[in-house]
Write a structure and sequence with these properties.
By secondary structure, the chain is an alpha/beta fold. It has a domain of 231 residues: NAD(P)-binding Rossmann-like Domain (Rossmann fold), CATH 3.40.50.720. The two termini are 38 Å apart.
Amino acid sequence: MKNTILVTGGVGFIGSNFVLDWIASETASVVNLDKLTYAGNLQNLESLTGNSRHIFVRGDIGDAELVAKLLAEHQPRAIVNFAAESHVDRSIHGPGEFIQTNIVGTFQLLEATRAYWGALNEEDKKAFRFLHVSTDEVYGSLKPEDPAFKETNSYEPNSPYSASKAASDHLVRAYHHTYGLPVLTTNCSNNYGPYHFPEKLIPLIIHNALAGKALPIYGDGQQVRDWLYVRDHCSAIRRVLEAGRVGDTYNVGGWNEKPNLDVVHTLCAILDELSPRADGNAYAEQVTYVTDRLGHDRRYAIDATKIHRELGWKPGETFESGIRKTVQWYLANQTWVRNVTSGDYTNWIQKNYKVED
């Protein structure tokens, strides 16, 4: 094996933050396999242009031939699997892509990995790791009085997205118990931070607020999520990859449970301070309540005690510090936002990669 890792889905929100964090923190090179769907943005990794330690390959984890070729050529010591369809709303309207990518794609990736790993010498076999990045949504929904999700919670997914991720988690577990593949799984809470495609709550609210548009709130806005700054998530994954117990699962959370409405009002207050409306009014005036999402889970919360106790990891950002950094990043990177929301980025991909409709 070489001092290289293969990252799948490494141009999306969490994946690109991980790649940037890895290149800055580690010595191993990165082979970055990404399909470049709507949420994959090569502009996220512009700072790595010309960096010999980052190799980008456009492709699908479901392409078994391509994955096998990359593994044979680059001989990575680890695979970190971020590749997934991940937006609940999109899964409600079109579940098929979620089944194909999250279940079938993960299966194909595991099969290619099993063949690669099986051919390694004994020393390299022991050193190799397959880390699968998953979500707290596989555990279902919590009542207000329920304790936070632990790794021992049963799986009770409630959306096509979370069901597809639950299935992929089970496949990863099965490949360890059946074939001995040295796997690790992380289940994270809601991420936020730089390079987040403006369809999820926090970047959507920032984008709409600055554009003078309505700030849509599902239902009563009291859905509770545990918020994790994306770069803290990246450091957790690096730590699990380094020292996690093979075959084990680690929950990664920010210890920041907040109702959606509170998050929106926090964003509005920071924007009032850093980028006031021209008319002097508060951004909170743009808040608009809309019909709740189908099957909307009421509360998620992660108990991250295990990863702290066993691996010494804890988040470096509070919600207050992380959310301010996030707003500051979006204010400083409005060109990035315009490109991903105007169609310019899609046109650029068409021109440079000859993508067919």
